[in-house]
From TrEMBL:
Membrane protein topology class: Multi-pass membrane protein
A single Gene Ontology CC term: plasma membrane
Domain Major facilitator superfamily associated: 7-339
Naturally occurring in which organism (per UniProt): Clostridium sartagoforme
Predominant location category: membrane
Annotated TM spans: 7-26, 38-57, 69-87, 93-110, 131-148, 154-171, 198-215, 235-255, 267-289, 295-313, 320-340, 352-375
Protein name listed in UniProt: MFS transporter
GO MF, any single term: lactose binding
Length: 383
């Protein structure tokens, strides 16, 4: 079964790369929105990702037949991609909630799914998830070549074909894994906020990882500012992003092989420290150090994602893990994209890129201190 988990993870992150990497240029170049209009559409979509992903994850945690849930969800994704192909300037803002709720949530929902399957099959989540990084990198690279020759429509058709392939694999190859034990007590969303550890972890992730992830929107423009050459900056950007995905793959690989029994809290602390170091390197304004710093993201993300699941299973009951992870996921992605860019734009306007990066460095340091001092480190026995 492991090979089918790997193939499915490779494919779904390939779809996710098409839906996210090429969404902004699609709105701008194909649909014809101005940059400010794109910003509004993206913000609306991010808001609905924040709302929808925890709800979908909570439903997932309650249903007995996990495979059926994913199949139904993927059919919804397929229909949403078809709709995305036909939006125009007037419909873009109206369609944004569908994009945010269904398409931008794909990676988060599937990560929860493969984590459940990995636990059931006694596999390491990181050993499966690493293929998602390669799928993302390969499809982005190939999609860029295809886009130049055939346009955006063919990318969406490729995404539809991949989703159909995913549904076929799950229906025909995941038969032994259809039934996953149903929890007696179904969790409620409000239960998360009754748990002190989750509340503290929400603060840590939003303040540390969220502020860190929110910087991505400025990376391209920062490179242009540093080299004063748009074409050269784009080349550096493409090289840097591609390389860090490869680093991310090896990070997951190392975790699955050598860090299976490592202390989850210590590894998450290291992830936060690595994030802080990356931000410091970015603040230097030296191209070599900036690109080097960007590669640290691969190390940070491999540790963060692998051990966040492990840590959640150690500090809360299992029925709350899926919903908790989803909330933390949107706070570090959709929430970050919804809130932080406007803050950073204001700081950058007054204090430059250096001031912006130092602000984020301080945020990560504060979140790390909270995490070390106030969250438990020893594994608890949970019923």
């Amino acid at each position: 079964m492991k090979k089918y988990y790997n193939i499915s993870t490779f494919l779904i992150f390939g779809v996710f790369s098409i839906l996210t990497t090429f969404y902004f240029p699609y709105l701008n170049q194909e649909v014809g929105l101005s940059l400010s209009e794109v910003g509004r559409v993206v913000s609306v979509g991010a808001l609905f990702t924040i709302i929808a992903q925890p709800i979908l994850s909570n439903i997932f945690s309650k249903v007995k037949n996990k495979n059926k849930f994913i199949i139904v969800y993927l059919f919804g994704v397929l229909i949403s991609i078809v709709g995305l192909m036909f939006i125009n300037k007037d419909l873009a803002i109206i369609y944004a909630p569908i994009y945010g709720a269904m398409l931008a949530s794909v990676a988060g929902i599937f990560e929860i799914y493969i984590e459940e399957l990995s636990i059931k099959s006694k596999l390491e989540f990181s050993d499966v998830r690493k293929w998602g990084s390669i799928g993302y990198a390969c499809v982005v690279f190939l999609s860029g070549l295809i886009l130049n020759k055939f346009g955006f429509r063919i990318l969406h058709i490729i995404a539809i074909v991949i989703i159909c392939t995913m549904i076929f694999i799950i229906i025909n190859k995941f038969k032994d894994d259809i039934e996953i034990k149903e929890e007696k007590d179904h969790p409620k969303f409000i239960d998360l906020f009754k748990n002190k550890n989750i509340v503290l972890l929400i603060i840590v992730i939003f303040l540390g990882i969220g502020s860190y992830m929110g910087l991505d929107f400025a990376y391209s423009s920062y490179l242009v500012d540093l080299v004063n050459d748009v074409e050269k900056a784009n080349q550096i950007y493409s090289f840097s992003i591609s390389l860090r995905v490869v680093v991310e793959f090896f990070s997951f690989l190392i975790v699955s092989k050598y860090l299976i029994n490592a202390n989850s809290k210590k590894c998450l602390t290291i992830a936060l420290v690595v994030a802080a170091i990356k931000v410091l390197l970015l603040s230097t304004g030296n191209i070599a150090l900036v690109v080097l710093g960007d590669q640290l993201h691969g190390i940070m993300y491999g540790l963060y994602l692998s051990f966040l699941f492990k840590y959640l299973r150690e500090i809360i009951s299992s029925e709350l893990v899926a919903t908790s992870f989803s909330v933390l996921s949107v706070l570090s992605s959709g929430g970050a994209n919804f809130i932080y860019p406007s803050i950073y734009s204001y700081i950058q306007g007054d204090y430059g890129y250096f001031g912006m990066y130092i602000f984020v460095f301080i945020s990560i340091v504060i979140s790390t201190i909270i995490f070390i001092l106030f969250l438990p480190s020893k594994k608890k026995v949970l019923n």
